[in-house]
Automatic annotation (TrEMBL):
This is sucrose-phosphate synthase. Gene3D superfamilies: 3.90.1070.10, Glycogen Phosphorylase B, HAD superfamily/HAD-like. The keyword Membrane does not apply. Belongs to the glycosyltransferase 1 family. Its EC number is 2.4.1.14.
Length: 705
């Protein structure tokens, strides 16, 4: 029933009114200021929820953005948690549901009152005159609640996991508790109408590893970053935290901030720092290992790690160069990043594995370069923000090398610091709210049928620098495609992965494509009535004779070539960074000399992909044309750079946007290629219309003759 209402509202394309409800059960959730760390579970997810809901409430398309949590009565944790309602802003409040159990419950005990909580919440929603249109569940336990609410009331829900147990399970002995958590996460993944995660690693590696995951329900949406403005008084207070430990506080600061648990690998960082003469002679090591009241109090694991930490400091005689303050507030933490940057220092996250890596984002927001574990989220955060170096957390020498490089190489340090500040600008709550609303809209319109796409003509366009680059042009093209939906099909062909392609299309307000050719034409996804379907026939054709291990072996230690991040490596795509365009021919020679059937494609002078011979954007386009039984002269292909060449060369109607890369200049002279006067999406539209006019004239001439 609620579904029907949403559908009506959404038929015009833009969600006009939206009532959003977030659910989170754990921690001390309250209107700001939040006392982070007051309990173990009062952490990052609360900042996420408050930031997200505040931005949604500011959006004029949103009528309400409320937050549901548990009511509990524990004077030590503030009376506010016993208040059934707490206003945040005019359009947003926290609603506390009384399950009957008024104790504060830690994460592992929350299951105890879940059934009662769920019943009470459903009662509350039934009684209220305004039902939410969509629920956003935070963590798997809230997803379980949301699933039951949907069963009763038909409200769809989005799930955000925050910190998946998948990698934990791979690292540790499988305990029954962990197994239960994995199961619960899998249930949440199975039930959710959509899943939102922050990093590529979560979207493309961790989530798909769950048995119930469906790739097309997973969306990447980056949370905003609230850059804390650091006051002078905060800097002074932060300095006071470390000065008692340090002989020369002005040295470059190597900063680490993490809870004292084994997987954060702090002790190995001390070992790496302490066993390098150079590092301990030139820099200070500052660790903020959570809050503590002595090393003999608190949880067993915390005690163990803290004792190992002191022990390592002692053994390496790091007194005077290592600081590990016991108490700090959030303003001092922000100021510490700032002090580290001013000292020309570096932030280090040495974790064995990290689901996301929020501290790397915080460091970036202060312009502080990082050295981070290559396992988990950090590798794609660093690839995206380009503000640091990755290390193998098991290898102290690797850690030392990276830290020293950051301290020694002024040009590198400056570049990382600048990149951090520029690239972090793309992570803001306004964009998050926009993205959230379009995902919600997609869910609401997901039950539309119509798998039988029979366009008369079709556009297949590259994404980066072809569709993207100019907002105004993108809006015009998008409006054109939406208007012509019935007759002009829309497809994209990109070097990006499926998840990233969808994120970019969403961020650029492009229509959902009918077909999505991803990973340099090595994967094809068809839009169906309810999501996307991988083209298995195409995959089967590519699999014949494809041996990625042989490719990787042949490229091992190849001069001038390094592998792109693990997340960029796909089933039919091995990707590298080349140090210049002349690597291409040497790579081709090497493949030939090893008798490996594969094709190498270079884009932007430095992105090198090796694919099965039968893959590539052109091959994928030809496959799409065959499936749709669309004559080739009914497809217009548009692009701008190296990996578009085969597609542009072989299409009978091609468009080169004005901002094309030098490496495709040769294409511009070909008769079937229209070189647009405009750049980016405006150029695509110009080319599309040009080809349309030309084929009409041709047809007219044919009819007349
Ligand atoms: C995208 C991909 C990358 C590839 C490049 C060129 O940027 O993420 O792996 O090398 O396109 O095709
Ligand atoms: Mg491009």
């Amino acid at each position: 029933m609620a579904g029907a209402i949403i559908k009506l509202r959404f038929t015009l394309g833009v969600p006009e009114f939206m009532h959003i409800l977030a659910i989170a059960l754990g921690g001390c959730l309250r209107a700001p200021p939040v006392r982070y760390g007051i309990t173990e579970d009062t952490g990052g997810h609360i900042a996420y929820i408050l930031g997200a809901m505040a931005a949604l409430a500011r959006d004029p398309r949103v009528t309400r953005a409320d937050i549901i949590t548990r009511l509990f009565d524990d004077p030590a944790l503030s009376r506010v948690h016993a208040q059934p309602r707490e206003a945040i802003s005019a359009k947003s409040e926290i609603i506390r549901i009384d399950s009957g159990n008024r104790h504060y419950l830690a994460k592992e005990d929350l299951a105890r009152d879940r059934a009662a909580f769920t019943r009470a919440l459903i009662e509350f929603l039934r009684a209220s005159d305004r039902r939410p249109d969509i629920i956003h569940a935070h963590f798997a336990d809230a997803a379980d609640v949301a699933r039951q609410v949907r069963n009763e009331l038909g409200i769809p829900f989005i799930y955000t996991a925050h910190s998946l147990a998948h990698d934990k399970a791979a690292m540790m002995q499988n305990s029954p508790a962990l197994a239960a958590r994995l199961k619960e996460e899998d249930r949440a993944i199975a039930a959710a109408d959509a899943i939102i995660a922050s990093s590529r690693d979560e979207c493309e590696r961790q989530l798909p590893a769950y048995p119930s995951a469906r790739f097309d329900r997973i969306h990447r949406l980056r949370p905003g970053v609230d850059v804390a403005d650091v006051r002078r008084s905060d800097l002074i207070r932060a300095r006071r935290l470390v000065e008692p430990f340090l002989r020369q506080p002005s040295r470059p600061m190597i900063l680490a901030i993490a809870r004292p648990v084994h997987k954060k690998n702090l002790v190995r960082l001390v070992e790496a720092f302490g066993s390098s003469r150079e590092l301990s002679a030139r820099a200070n090591l500052v660790i903020l290992p959570g809050l503590r009241a002595g090393v003999k109090r608190g949880e067993a694991e915390h005690r163990e790690v803290l004792i190992d930490l002191v022990d390592a400091i002692d053994r390496h005689d790091l007194h005077g160069v290592a600081a590990w303050p016991s108490r700090h507030d959030s303003r001092q933490v922000a100021a510490m990043y700032e002090l580290a940057r001013r000292s020309r220092g570096v932030f280090v996250n040495p974790a064995l594995t990290e689901p996301y890596g929020l501290t790397l984002i915080e460091a970036a927001s202060h312009g502080l370069p990082v050295v981070a574990t290559r396992n988990g989220g950090p590798s794609d955060i660093v690839a995206e923000l380009e503000h640091g170096l990755l290390i193998n957390p098991l290898d102290p020498e690797d850690m030392q090398r990276a830290m020293l490089r950051m301290l020694d190489d002024e040009v590198l340090w400056q570049r990382c610091s600048r990149n951090a500040l520029v690239n972090i600008g793309g992570m803001n709550w306004r964009d998050y709210a926009n993205g959230f609303l379009s995902i919600a809209q997609e869910i609401a319109s997901a039950d539309r049928t119509g798998t039988t796409m029979r366009p008369r003509r079709m556009l297949i366009s590259d994404i980066d620098n072809t569709l993207t680059g100019c907002r105004k042009g993108a809006r015009r093209l998008s409006a054109f495609l939406t208007r012509k939906r019935a007759s002009v099909g829309f497809g994209v062909a990109t070097g990006r992965s499926f998840v990233e392609a969808r994120r970019l299309l969403r961020e650029w307000d492009m229509p959902v494509p009918d077909v999505l050719i991803a990973s340099v034409g090595s994967e094809i996804y068809w839009r169906t009535g309810r999501g996307f379907r991988l083209d298995e026939d195409y995959a089967a054709a590519l699999a014949k004779g494809w041996n990625p291990d042989a490719v990787l072996a042949a490229m091992d230690d190849f001069p001038g070539l390094v592998r792109q991040a693990p997340i960029e490596q796909r089933r039919f795509k091995c990707s590298f960074l080349a140090d210049g365009p002349d690597v291409l021919n040497r790579v081709r020679d090497r493949l030939a000399s090893r008798g490996i059937a594969a094709k190498a494609i270079l884009s932007h002078d430095r992105l090198l992909d090796i694919l099965p011979v039968r893959a590539g954007k052109h091959a994928a386009l030809a496959h799409v044309a065959a499936v749709l039984e669309l004559p080739r002269d009914r497809i217009v292909a548009a692009g701008d750079s190296g990996n578009d060449v085969d597609m542009l060369a072989a299409s009978s109607q091609a468009v080169l946007v004005a901002n094309f890369h030098e490496e495709v200049r040769g294409m511009a002279g070909l008769t079937h290629v229209y070189t647009a006067r405009r750049s980016h999406a405006a150029g695509v539209l110009e080319g599309l219309l040009w080809h349309e006019r030309r084929s009409r004239t041709k047809e007219a001439a044919y009819v007349a003759a």
